[in-house]
Amino acid sequence: MSIFRRLRDLTVASVNDALDSMEDPVVMLNQYMRDMEVEIGQVEVAVARQVALEKKFRQQWEEAVALVEKRDRQVKLALTEGEDELARRALADKKQYEGRAQEYETLYLSAAEAAGQMREKLAELKEEFYKMRAKKFTLMARAQVARTQKQVNSAVVGIGNQTAGRGFARMEEKVMRMEAEAQMSGQWRQTSMGLNNALSELEKDDLDAELANIKASLKENKASAAPETKA
């Protein structure tokens, strides 16, 4: 049983954590305010009905009292006129309306007390609603500040430690690699130019030597041809 209880506790804890992470304070505060508005609306309807019932019982009580007073006058009038039987009937009717008046008075007082309590409850709900509405705006502002601060902090951390930082390091390494390749390319070019210059100098020396040989050959030919001309 202890294993199953622990599994249940872990499951409940995981579900609660998931629900907590899904709850957006702004969304939930707006929902709570809507719930309170619905509750206030329901109480207002109940109060209106109770007030209507209070007015109804009051009207019935007042009508019954008016009939009692009317029958009382009629009893006295009948006795004055010597109509004892009529006076007796009017008196019995008066007693009946007195009973009704007392009943309606009780109902009216009970309905009035209930209506008063419901009015107080409605006033308390509205006062609480106004307080919660004012507090809602404060909490929403605090939530927005916290959310913005969290985004800024995440961005700063990201620049230093995450994608942007790694990207800059990689680009710096690439630039250094390009600079090294450019430097090596320049050194190779200088080496190649030095080789070409050296080979050109060698070729120039060969040409000079060949020209010197040709000049020497021409001189020799000229020297050997000179006596033959004198003969």
From TrEMBL:
Keywords: Coiled coil. InterPro entries: PspA_VIPP1 (IPR007157). Residues 87-135 form a coiled coil. The keyword Coiled coil applies. The keyword RNA-binding does not apply. Belongs to the PspA/Vipp/IM30 family. PANTHER family: MEMBRANE-ASSOCIATED PROTEIN VIPP1, CHLOROPLASTIC, PHAGE SHOCK PROTEIN A. This is Phage shock protein A (PspA) family protein. It comes from Brevibacillus centrosporus. The lineage of its organism: Bacteria, Bacillati, Bacillota, Bacilli, Bacillales.
